[in-house]
């Protein structure tokens, strides 16, 4: 264990040398894995490495697994140890170990006390790519579904051309493996409550169709007047944060579960699957009637908690206190200075007519806070 700790420290020292040496390194997992979540069936995952130019000395990586997974234990002498084994490329020259410091996070490290290079082949001289195999067990609480398991933080160690200097090589992308889990716990679905303002945020752990009456928007930018630019989405994609509008009420969603992590982010928004504290400097949706009405307001020093299946806007600016909403390029904030006095009809988000043949400049006067539609454009009023 002392050697493992020393190498972990050493690997961190060489981060600056890794960037220029990643071109030929390939590391991957089994692409499709089927798991029976009964608490006893062992599923084996193999990780492979290929580099035609280099034989590596050591490596470490992190594999993110669904909740409910653990490393299988096998008896070794009088003790039980982690079920992880090296391939023929390093059976007698290296040591491998793993642990799970937190649920869903599997850390793997392989070292050589004498800094031997791994072989590129088996004992017969045949080129092989697998480097290790780990046995996994999923307990019955694991949610049935399909997960994109991630492999990150991949670092390999090599000798430089002088044969003495050690340097690290980092994999420059995330590797994925599709895990299909059965025999576990079925996810019951989500009852999403859209408030009286007719506007909210939402993230789902599965793909789903958009229900009647609801409109779903993805944030794709920020305009010059500190408004979020929202583009209508054709369907709901798993693990994607959205702004949604529609009639007040409860909407039920079901689908094949795909959430590997507790939160997912785009460049503009973050959605969560459990109750969380929103970091200071980010923005949460609120209805401030004395300013912009419904919008995203900056979180200060006061603790702000966000509920599951909701989203917040990332800390995009240190100077902006609030972001307004722009739906498909139309300004989402109603202005009483509208000069066009044509007669228009006003509709609610459910399609019901609220007002008929009224001057546009007065169309929204006196209405309750919420979202209204005039000539296919949406307006938020205080």
From TrEMBL:
Keywords: Signal. This is Lipocalin-like domain-containing protein. It comes from the Bacteria. Residues 1-20 form the signal peptide. It comes from Paraprevotella clara.
